[in-house]
Write a structure and sequence with these properties.
Ribosomal Protein S5, domain 2, about 300 residues, 6 helices, five-stranded mixed β-sheet
Amino acid sequence: MATAPCLRSQQTLRRPVQIAGVGYWSGQSVTLECHPAPAETGVVLVCTDGPSPVRLRLAISNRSDSPARTNLRVGDFRVEMVEHLASSLAGLGIDCCEVRLNARELPGLDGSSSAYVEAFDEAGLEDLGAALRPIVVREPVRVEEGNAWIEATPPVFAGLSVDYTLEHAHPHIGTQRVALDVTPQAYREQLAAARTFVTADEAAKLLEAGLGRHVTRAELLVFGDDGLEENVLRWPDECARHKALDLVGDLALAGRPVHAVVCACRSGHRLNARLVNSLLAHDRAGGDATSRGNRR
């Protein structure tokens, strides 16, 4: 693992943008404002719903383990479901941004990152003139958990490539695979609109737990015994594309762009985060550790 010069400089938004919606889990209305930020800022969330603002950096050290989503925590303060925002920022190459929000969960929107991408494209990007120091993978780094695994190998270009295989027990989801180089254009066209999905049984359990009662099947892909309920797929492999979208967002927890080919099978938020920790450990060690040490 090593750091290396990148072809572009650090980037931020040219002007602030505002996005509003409702949190999937809480049902609470939320408005977030994404503001330009200086070089070396990274991505920082500023929550204003309490007596004083709370700042949370998008970083693996602030990740809070939760099922089916990526949360950030500082002390007892937690912000939920940040992965779609993180994914859109990373996918478009926005390195520095201050995100101000008035709730503790980001909006679910239509279950994808399309609304973020549209807002960021409208604002435009500004070159900050500061060197970008990505994590460049020099040797394979792999983590496993049961029959799920994820591995980073050296890049094929100056950026991130993802290759995700989804193997799902539901017959109407099944096995799907998506592979692409994550350029801004490819992210816009091939990942941004891919939506969150659940089975009808999973949706029923969430409702029983008092979660997601306001979410309609127009805002979430729900697969029942007869297939997708009250919705239409945007791609035949939309579920795999959404898992790749999530992966891009989880890799952003490294705090720097990851230049690698990242292949994954059945990986989710927790295993993605373990790969980020391994990549950072290799980066700190200068690449001396072997991939064997990351097999668990």
